[in-house]
């Protein structure tokens, strides 16, 4: 049985869709030239076109944080942003956190504190935690929890994530 | 007749894009063109000659909330912004976009259901549906959606003024007049005209930095929309209230204020006995629906609690 409502306008059939065009992204210190449609999200550009699949697609609606990357050092949801709008930005993904075989301190701390189970949210958790540390607004465990609330972990590794972040935070010199 | 501002296939400005792109993925919005405004020179927070503060439309919510002048002079606004969304979203979402974000009513988002806001004339799915998150004040038979912003609740309490630029020049819109009640035109969220763009939000000098609070009640303690929220700013002299602002979120199609209710506090001692009549005045005419009648008592209690919190806070 189907019920029909006049609920949504029909797709604009007469519109000419723009062709894919050149978009250059600067990711983890490298320039990457892509040819993509203008509506391609930063997340899809990274995963599907630049083949940097470390950044994860969870909800694709900005609710889970799995797609978190750093834009000029600031954490954002890459699913809610268009790649074409980031050609002047430095993007850092999970692939860019380590130096060769030397893990980022947060990556090592996540391992040491068993801060993940399935690992799907982990790239987003790590990029978010890097952003959190550079923002410098969290000091206590409660503040870390609040300022990591944009990253969901369905394995509920939250206590260990907070411990890992705390360890790195306290190993860093305090900001003035 | 649809105007450009409400036509779902028209041109849209995009700044942070955190709500617009989501709406496009949901096919709620299907703009034919997006105009990226991020290179416009609207990214500054500047002091105004009258002692107020101008928040550029393109300043992010995070940069606004953590700005020293906002933290120092408008802590109510800082607290309110930080009560909304997540750090990632606040890092991307802009001040202008915060005002322009659309309701999170489930029926607005679900294109398989009727919604007068999304498709005028199709009906309201929320009215007889699962309306727990919907409004209790200023609703209409066409729409019972709420405005989702936290920031706008504080801006309403602070009597901020929206600076707008458009095809016919520049104009200012007081926050009280920016968002509108649904009436029989719920597709119109606000009073912007086609082609108009928010350029800045001006805060008056009075920041209520001594006695203020933003109380936000929600289903989880972070990263959730308000069921009911209350922004309070008070001025006190010798235990008597000399100036009061009260705005509610999560209950109406716009931040809910009634200056007459606020006036009832002036000259009164800051005591719970004073609050009862104020609560009644602010919530007069409230109406609960099948799943959200709890919001009325929640709002009553939240107002009293917020007034008490505001009194006890001293900067």
Short description:
Chain A has 176 residues and is α+β, with helices and mostly antiparallel strands.
- Unreliable spans of chain B are 1-6
Figure out the total of helices of chain B.
12
Q: Specify the overall morphology of chain A.
A: elongated
Overall, the morphology of chain B is: globular
What's the topology here?
The complex is a heterodimer of chains A (176) and B (315).
Chain A: E1 21-27, E2 30-36, H1 42-49, E3 68-71, E4 74-77, E5 90-92, H2 105-112, H3 122-135, H4 141-147, H5 158-171
Parallel strand pairs in A: 1-5
Antiparallel strand pairs in A: 1-2, 3-4, 3-5
Helix pairs in contact in A: 2-5
Chain B: E1 11-14, H1 20-25, E2 33-36, E3 45-47, E4 53-56, H2 61-65, H3 68-73, H4 75-82, H5 87-92, H6 95-100, H7 106-109, H8 151-157, E5 161-166, E6 169-174, H9 175-178, E7 197-203, E8 211-217, E9 228-237, E10 240-249, H10 259-263, H11 272-283, H12 294-312
Helix pairs in contact in B: 4-8, 11-12
Question: Can you walk me through this structure?
Answer:
The complex is a heterodimer of chains A (176) and B (315). Chain A has helices spanning 42-49, 105-112, 122-135, 141-147, 158-171, and strands at residues 21-27, 30-36, 68-71, 74-77, 90-92. Chain A is α+β, with helices and mostly antiparallel strands and 176 residues long. Chain A folds into 2 domains: 21-96, Ubiquitin-like (UB roll); 105-171, DNA polymerase, domain 1 (Orthogonal Bundle), CATH 1.10.150. A 5-stranded mixed sheet of chain A has the order 2-1-5-3-4, with helices on both faces. In chain A, strand 3 and strand 4 form a beta hairpin. The model of chain A has no long low-confidence stretch (mean pLDDT 92). With 315 residues, chain B is an alpha+beta fold. Chain B folds into 2 domains: 42-203, Uridine Diphospho-n-acetylenolpyruvylglucosamine Reductase, domain 3, CATH 3.30.465; 211-312, CO dehydrogenase flavoprotein, C-terminal domain (Enolase-like, domain 1, 2-Layer Sandwich), CATH 3.30.390. Helices cover 28% and strands 19% of the residues of chain B. Chain B is built from 12 helices and 10 strands. The longest helix of chain B is centred in the C-terminal third of the chain and has 19 residues, at 294-312. Chain B is globular and about 60 Å long. The model of chain B is unreliable at 1-6 (pLDDT under 50). Chain A binds chain B through residues 5-9, 11-12, 15, 39, 41, 60-62, 65, 68, 71, 74-77, 80-82, 85, 128, 131-132, 135, 137, 145-151, and chain B through 8-9, 14, 17-18, 21-22, 24-25, 27, 30, 32, 34, 36, 38, 62, 66, 85-89, 91-92, 111-115, 118-119, 121-123, 222-223.
């Amino acid at each position: 049985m189907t019920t029909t409502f006049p609920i949504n306008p029909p797709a604009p059939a007469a519109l000419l869709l723009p062709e894919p065009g050149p978009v250059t992204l600067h990711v983890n210190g490298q320039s990457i030239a892509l040819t993509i449609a203008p509506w391609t999200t930063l997340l899809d550009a990274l995963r599907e076109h630049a083949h940097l699949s470390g950044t994860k697609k969870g909800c694709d609606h900005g609710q889970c944080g799995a797609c978190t990357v750093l834009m000029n050092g600031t954490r954002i949801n890459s699913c809610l942003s268009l790649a074409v709008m980031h050609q002047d930005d430095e993007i850092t993904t999970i692939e860019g956190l380590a130096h060769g075989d030397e893990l980022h301190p947060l990556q090592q701390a996540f391992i040491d504190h068993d801060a993940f189970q399935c690992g799907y949210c982990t790239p987003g958790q790590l990029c978010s935690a890097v952003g959190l540390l550079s923002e410098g607004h969290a000091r206590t465990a409660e503040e870390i929890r609040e300022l990591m609330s944009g990253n969901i972990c369905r394995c509920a590794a939250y206590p260990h994530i907070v411990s890992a972040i705390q360890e790195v935070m306290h190993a860093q010199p305090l900001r003035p | 007749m649809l105007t450009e501002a409400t036509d779902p296939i028209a041109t849209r400005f995009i700044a942070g894009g955190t709500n617009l792109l989501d709406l496009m993925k949901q096919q709620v919005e299907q703009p034919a063109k997006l105009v990226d405004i991020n290179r416009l020179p609207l990214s500054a927070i500047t002091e105004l000659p009258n002692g107020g503060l101008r928040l550029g439309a393109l300043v992010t919510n995070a940069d606004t909330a953590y700005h020293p002048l906002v933290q120092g002079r408008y802590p109510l606004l800082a607290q309110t912004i930080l009560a909304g969304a997540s750090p990632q979203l606040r890092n991307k979402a802009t001040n202008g976009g915060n005002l322009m974000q659309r309701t999170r009513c489930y029926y607005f988002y679900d294109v398989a259901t009727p919604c007068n806001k999304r498709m005028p004339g199709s009906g309201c799915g929320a009215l007889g549906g699962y309306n727990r998150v919907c409004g209790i004040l200023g609703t209409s038979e066409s729409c019972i959606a709420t405005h989702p912003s936290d920031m706008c609740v504080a801006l309403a309490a602070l009597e901020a003024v929206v600076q707008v630029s458009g095809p016919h020049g520049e104009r200012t819109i007081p926050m009280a007049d920016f968002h509108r009640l649904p009436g029989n035109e719920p597709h119109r969220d606000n009073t912007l005209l086609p082609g108009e763009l928010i350029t800045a939000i001006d805060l008056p000098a009075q920041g209520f930095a001594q006695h203020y609070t933003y109380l936000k009640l929600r289903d989880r303690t972070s990263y959730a929309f308000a069921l009911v929220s209350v922004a309070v700013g008070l001025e006190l002299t010798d235990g008597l209230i000399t100036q009061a602002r009260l705005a509610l979120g999560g209950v109406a199609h716009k931040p809910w204020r009634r200056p007459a209710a606020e006036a009832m506090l002036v000259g009164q001692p800051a005591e719970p006995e004073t609050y009862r009549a104020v609560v009644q005045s602010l919530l007069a005419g409230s109406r609960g629906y099948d799943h959200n009648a709890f919001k009325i008592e929640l709002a009553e209690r939240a107002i009293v609690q917020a007034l008490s919190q505001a009194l006890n806070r001293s900067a």
